[in-house]
Specification:
- The protein is an alpha+beta fold.
- It has 4 helices and 5 strands, in the order H-E-E-H-E-E-E-H-H.
- The longest helix is centred in the middle third of the chain and has 19 residues.
- The mean pLDDT is about 90.
């Protein structure tokens, strides 16, 4: 699966769990840490955890794709899942607005 296909599959998984404001950001030409960031908003800590858990579960069980690193499980307001070429950010609306990753990474 290409990084772009993986990002699109992650979007589909997040949509199935009612994640909101889902966006793919192509960072291929901006950094070497990943090719794509997938951002999604969860409206509660419970939903944020459920969204992150579902992404990991589906990719592991359907595609044998395992996260390289996961951060934020203890706070549950921002969970980052690193699949090397694709990094997933599932965030609380307040944190998403404060950090404005779209604005940061979409700058020319």
């Amino acid at each position: 699966m290409t990084p772009e296909e993986l990002a699109k599959k992650i979007v589909s998984i997040l949509e199935s769990k009612k994640g909101s404001d889902i966006e793919i950001i192509d960072v291929t030409d901006k950094t070497t840490i990943a090719d794509y960031f997938v951002l999604a908003t969860g409206n509660s800590t419970t939903q944020i955890k459920a969204l992150a858990d579902e992404v990991e579960y589906i990719l592991k069980n359907e595609d044998q794709i395992y996260a390289d690193h996961v951060e934020g499980r203890s706070g549950d307001k921002w969970i980052l899942i690193d699949f090397k070429d694709v990094v997933v950010h599932v965030m609380h609306p307040e944190l998403r607005a404060d950090y404005d990753l779209e604005g940061l990474w979409n700058k020319k």
